[in-house]
Records
---
Amino acid sequence: MSGLRLMLRSPLKERLDLGAAFATGWAAATSADIARREVWSARSGTMLLGDLFSVEGTPDGTALLAGDLMLAERVGAGLAEGFVRVDGDVGDRAGAGLSGGRLELGGNAGHSTGEGMSGGILVVRGSTGNRAGSAAPGRKRGMAGGELVIMGNSGDETGALMRRGLVAVGGTTGRCALLSTIAGTVVACGATGPDAALWNKRGSLVCLGTVEPSATYRYACVIQPVYLRLLLRRLRDVHGLPVMAAHIDGRFRRFSGDFSETGKGEILEWSPA
Amino acid sequence: MKIRGVHIEDTFAEAFTMRSARLVITARSARWVREAALKLTGFATSVIGCKCEAGIERELTEEETPDGRPGVSILLMVMSKDELSKRLVERVGQTILTCPTTACYDGLPDAPDRVKVGGNLRYFGDGFQSSKVIGGQRFWRIPVMEGEFVVAETVGMVKCIGGGNFLILAEDADRALAAAEAAVDAMHGMPGIILPFPGGVVRSGSKVGSKTSKTMIASTNDAYCPTLRAVTTTALPDTVNSVLEIVVNGLDAAAVSASMRAGIDAACIPGVVSITAGNYGGKLGPHHFKLREIMGRASA
């Protein structure tokens, strides 16, 4: 059987930092190499990945992690190559610093999923906590590239401090999506929470559901943006988000803002015919 | 070799290396796609006088375009990389940017060599432009009075072949034209080629240089002009009274060969005496398309 399979030997009893598992070149690593990689927990200190997971298979650039990883943090952090798939839920900061490859999380993910991403594709089949695609603690700039696709809902401050890249949410977003963003795009297929795109410089918030622009935005026009056809078709065809033909062919109300910043950002609100 | 009674000369078409971009132009309707494409590819028959050679490769369905709208694939060819960027910016800027509802995409996304198009045109946005990366490609959104113009930041550039050709020697002008039209119809829409001249046909084939002017880099191909039969060294059989040329540029030799085969075969109709090709003894370009090899599978 090709590809690596990491099966959790027994349920985790403490929070675990799995960040080192795939952070450096791993696509050609054997199961033994991967098993020797060190992970860390606050109580137990450094451990070998092979102590926690049975690692099997032959390297082909893919890896599957199975087991209850709710207590595992930074799953797939620093991934730069290959395809890592996780069956089930994961803890906070999954995919942090992702710069390439593809990380697919089969369940829900905790807070700060995809924080500081600069490339690659991160797909969350379930929902995420707060600050998905945002900045790492202490950093001024958040996501700088790549695609973070959340099939379910996302929490507060989705895409906060983004500089580039795309966050697409199949469901609803919490408060303050696109907060203090320099540039980049957040697409919300469901309702967008209050205080959206505050202090946004040049970013785009695309709302296929409801949104209430803040008073620091100004209505500009109704438009059918061609670039949205590219973007929405990709989200539908490549990622399977609930984008309808009526969205792709639809008209959008454009609001410019945030005028407490440069005013070069936008909120695009889909207007049903 | 004869095909349906038409003599195929034992000669070759001599072609040269060029650089090409493939643009995918879309618009809200087929009408505006066509308007944009005709303007973009207008006055682009020969690098001799037009600085580039361009043509419509084929029409694209809504399913084939990046934004799901009607589109067209266009090949634009020049002699150097620097020229390509200049010509693209000029032509896209003046004919696609200006045309209602259009967008301009890269038709060679896998080509490692890139030239800027949107990356230069963006300055028309006067600071109001913005960019988006979608699927790994950067696009510029340039605000215009109608709404927005979307253009790829860069397009791929590949080496290609210009100057594939064949000449149709016919008993009269009507039959030469009918044969040329049949050839163009057969070649139309074949992948990877364009026919840059009007309707795909050239009546004024040229030779290198001039007898009367040192500044002329090309002048009439007097050996194939029927009116000059008596005053020059003619290449025309006695029964030939009109000659038309088909010029084909392609992304590779296989595409040029395939289109020439289809075109020559279609041109072999009653009234056509022979098919020959233009060459300069092998001194002009490295690509030699030997007519009899190309037509080898046709009936002899």
---
Amino acid sequence: MKLFWLIVLIFCIVWYATMTLYVGIRGFFDIFSMLQSIKENNPNNRISV
Amino acid sequence: MGYFSFLDGTIVVIYLLLTIVAGLAVRKYVGKVEHYLVAGREMNLYLGIASLAATEFGIVTCMYTAQNGLKMGFAGAVPGILQTIAMLLVGITGFCIKPLRDAGVMTIPELFENRFGPSVRWLSGVVIVLGGLLNMGVFLRTGGEFLLITMGYNPAEFATTYRLEIMMSILLIIVALYTVLGGMLSVLVTDFLQFIVMSTSMLVVTILILTKIGWSEIVNAVETHLGPKGFNPFLMERGWEFVLFNLCLQFAVVLTWQAVIQRILSAKSTRVGKLIYVNTSFFFTARFLIPGLWGMAALAVLTPEGIGENTLYAMPKFLSIFLPSGLMGFLIAGMLAADMSTDSAYMLTWGGVIYNDILAPLRKKHPWSEKKGVLINRTIVALIGLFLLFYGLWYPLKGNLWDYLGVTGTIYLSSMSVLLIACCYWKRANNWGAMGAIIAGAVFPIGFLVLQQLPITAEWAQRVGPYKSGLASYAGSALAMIIGTFLKELFVKKSNTEFEGH
């Protein structure tokens, strides 16, 4: 069981680090494309608060 | 010896300023209720992964998973593995989430109306909000306790000073400010920032623990204090019940926890929603195992006197003496990020259900305009903030926190998961069954808590245990759905036959 948990932990750290880096880069572009789509689809519906 | 320094404070202030600016910058894009509640359904894969992970990891999660690590060793991380399996299976197959996303609804109860009628939608909304808000009511205080203990403050001082209340009130005001104004758009943008800060700090602290304390030392501590059951959950007392109950619970969370499901409903398409689940699934193992390891490290480093009576405080006490200056500020910023993302998403989630399923159905003949709808949503989120402030922070909670969280969660998770499965895949399911499932799902956990408090039944309740009552809630809810459905078929068919006879 100890070996099982060691493997899970190592996989966890490697996966999490890779995911953080990858999502950190790609997610940044997702934000801009999301805001751009909302702006293009609803040019007249913007409310300033 | 760590403790909070000027450098740590500077890191935290910079992070908070960045969050406020990012959160407020996107408020101008909110033009419709759909933008406010589900980001106009424009969320793509990577932003969805960041948002789901950030939402589902708050300080309260960190505290309980670390406590699991301390008290149960590696076996305490089993619920995380079960959630990974549940999310992976649901993500690959699209079980329930595909019909839910395809229906184009903004909340789960909205889907129920098409099948079970407006009463079931309304009652589902009430049960979800009740369970969700009561559950969330304890987040703020637990978060404050973690932050102050890690910064080096003595838990004994909490009752005599208002430090915790003031600090968390300021934090809540910041979170409420951008959530009220920007809704889901602000939540997504800040979630992204918070995911990066939270994940990086968690990874750095974990690697530091493994290099400074060492894997062998942690394993030895678990072996010495807990023995083989620290590695194998089936060797624990009521081990099978624990695993089985958590399996049901994690499947129900994946299918119906509104904060999780809102990410599916905000996704650009059903395919993106499914991919978000598949790609985030392993995060849920990390969510239990990483803070669990911090709890086990506390077990290895602290003396029994150092741990004290409240095992919940052991992990932050350990971090307060373990982390060097600079890294302490980074961790505090990371945990603030975790807490803020959870609070903002949960405020918006429960607010969305109040608007969409409790208030809006009452105005079907004269629906609100989009502008008024956004304004009402903002007011609801602000009121939830007020509720959290007074109920969760200034009102001292009595009793066991873990039982409280378990009960409030199960009240709605059991019935909503049964309703969702029946709604999507059982053509005969009807509103009698749905009503029965909601009532049965709530009766068992509430009944258990009441019986636990009564002196005459306390011993019996102790013998039954929380896992059996939780399992009974899922089984009872499913059974009530089946019996209710057949009863309606029987009675309605009978009355129709009699009517035709006349």
---
Amino acid sequence: MAVIDHQAELNRAGANVRGRLGGLLFFIRQYPLGAIGGLIMIAFLATAIFAPMLANYDPLSTNARASLAPPGGAHALGADFMGRDVLARIIYGARISLAVGVGATVVGCLIGMTIGLLSGFFGGWFDLIVQRLMDIMQSLPLLVMALVMAASLGPSLTNTIIAIAIPLVPNVARIIRSNTLSLREMPFVEAARAVGMSETRIAIHHVLPNTLAPLIVLATAQLGSAILVESALAFLGLGVPEPHPSWGRMLSESAAEYVRTAPWLVIFPGIAISAVVFGTNLLGDAIRDMLDPRQRF
Amino acid sequence: MATLAARTETQKAATAGKGAVLEVEDLQTYFYTRNGLVKAVDGVSFSLQRGETLAIVGESGCGKSVTALSLMRLVADPPGRIVGGSMRLDGVDLVGLDAAAMRLVRGKEISMIFQEPMTSLNPVMTIGRQISEALLLHETNSRKAALARAVEMLNLVGIPEPQQRVKEYPHQLSGGMRQRAMIAMALACNPKVLIADEPTSALDVTIQAQILELIAKLRRELGTAVILITHDLGVVAETAERVIVMYAGRKVEEAGVGELFAHPLHPYTRGLMNSIPRLALMRSEGAKAATRLQEIPGIVPALSNLPPGCTFAPRCAFASDECRRAYPPYEQKRDGHWAACWHSDKVARASDG
């Protein structure tokens, strides 16, 4: 009969994890893929924040002599037609992607949360009208919605954020609403009423915090698709306007003309987009597993 | 603890002058449903003395929980509505209060413990925060003071290490502990009336006794009047002073607990008592050996479609034509013992003999 090493089993279950550092190490051991995703996201964040320190060149300054310079040499990842350093543009582009990704996700989640809570908790005609509106919005693909919004709002950073945030709203509103519907029948809501709490206060203090776990999972997934949609919009010429270095725009500028002659103009921004979306998805999956009580033991 | 002791003193002084704290008169709570009008509570009257324990018993669906929710004005509207009667708490009629005024009463003057301790606490909020919420709503603006009071309350309801427990979440407590925390929450503002709606049904038997003892102890110490809603006559015998028996939305019998158990005058009450398992029956001793446990035949009639006459007649062994014709008057049959039955004399004789 196999001898069970109780101490080893306990270690595996994380029984003697102490402190923040211990907790972090335990997370890494438990969710290695999530840790990789987290690492990518940290690198992405750091790049965006410390862009001026990391980049050797100004992403906007042109240099005719360096036009279409290949990778290596003075320009590590090459230079584009106007002689702008690709690495510097990717580094500064992280700021745009981060601003649009996080901005759109936060705005979309806030609006969606409010709508979902109002329509789930208070119901009535508001719920009916708003949910039909959400149905209509959900019948269009995210990109098409964003495309229409961006085209009608005109190109600017704020407008791009709004154009991506609005199509995210129905997903969030749906999830919050369905959670709220089951939560408002919970005995603790009745108990809160029994101590004299008002309906608004119950909605904000008791129902909303209980919907946060699924919202966090959804938000991480949305972050990836928001970044992707921003790239797509920029590729189609509707994103953040020139001369800001957006990854999607870098692709679209060079894809048609230079993909054969100067492939580095397409490959490196493409890698950047893929890496960040991959990172958010890995992290999102790990968070979902962590918050799912069925997988916790 | 000093403040608590002082508070208990003042409350005792207040209780010294006995009198009714809650007077319910002809309460009618109706539900307007697709299947018709459901008279869930139909003309129930009672009064609750300061510091008293009043039990309301009956089967599922007899209207006891709706009575409790009506007292809190928490009946869902639609479909339910309090359509008549009055509920005077220290002279103030709760039926007439608007929503905002009623919120000031809930939790402060009259509070409630629910059946399900497992789900009556918010899973994402610490115990301490949930108890202090009631205090922040009614008594103090200081989070610190409220939390200190929460610790005091947890100590009072017998939760060990209250300093530690206030920081914990509901899933870290057992069912009995959670019910204690619920009681602490309900009593935090020192209400005049505590409604306990089957507080022990979801707990295992060993914990039940502890929780009932705790409620009794707090009633003695704080002078809170308790309305205990239950279907368990064992619990009634242990804790209540006076008992109301409800059937199909109406009060069918009311008496002191000793009187009721000694001389039940309504066949329904008698039926409830006969359906309690007793050791003498099980041990096969003497003449009563191997007697089967008796039940009340049939079920509570659908409240939307009540029979004419006495609502219990279809299930009653004593029923006569008179019973099927007219609902019996609710009368005082013995000293302090009221019942609504045409044949209470026969019932009494059958019980005594």
